[in-house]
Specification:
The protein has 110 residues and is an alpha/beta fold. The chain contains five helices and five strands; from the N terminus they run βαβαβαβααβ. It has one domain. A five-stranded parallel β-sheet has the order 2-1-3-4-5, sandwiched between helices.
């Protein structure tokens, strides 16, 4: 599973989670730090990424449009990058099942 981390999450998550989620990227590293949500959405869908964001915009888009791409909505308040990495690691099995579920468009994790 390849994750595409939104601008509101640290670019360091790519390296921190490389073992669990190889091929993941951050929008900043793809030159899309200032890209609009529709541009990020289209890129993720075309390239087979699951978007990971703390923002409700992608969650709402997933509800309205369905997938691809799928969206993981990180529901942690003010927290560290390590907290987000730990959360995604601890929910690894749920994330894999979510990706495989043909009916699910978004997954909220907290």
């Amino acid at each position: 599973m390849k994750l595409l981390f939104d601008q509101n999450l640290s670019h360091r998550l790519v390296a921190l989670l490389a073992a669990e989620f190889p091929g993941s990227q951050h929008v900043r590293d793809l030159g899309m730090a200032a890209a609009s949500d529709p541009v990020v959405w289209a890129y993720a869908a075309k390239e087979g990424f699951v978007i990971v964001s703390k923002d409700t915009d992608f969650q709402q888009r997933a509800v309205l449009r369905g997938h691809p791409p799928k969206v993981v909505w990180v529901r942690l308040g003010n927290c560290s990058t390590a907290d987000v990495a730990d959360l995604l690691r601890s929910r690894f099995a749920d994330l894999v099942a979510f990706e495989a579920d043909v009916t699910a468009s978004f997954l909220a994790v907290s």
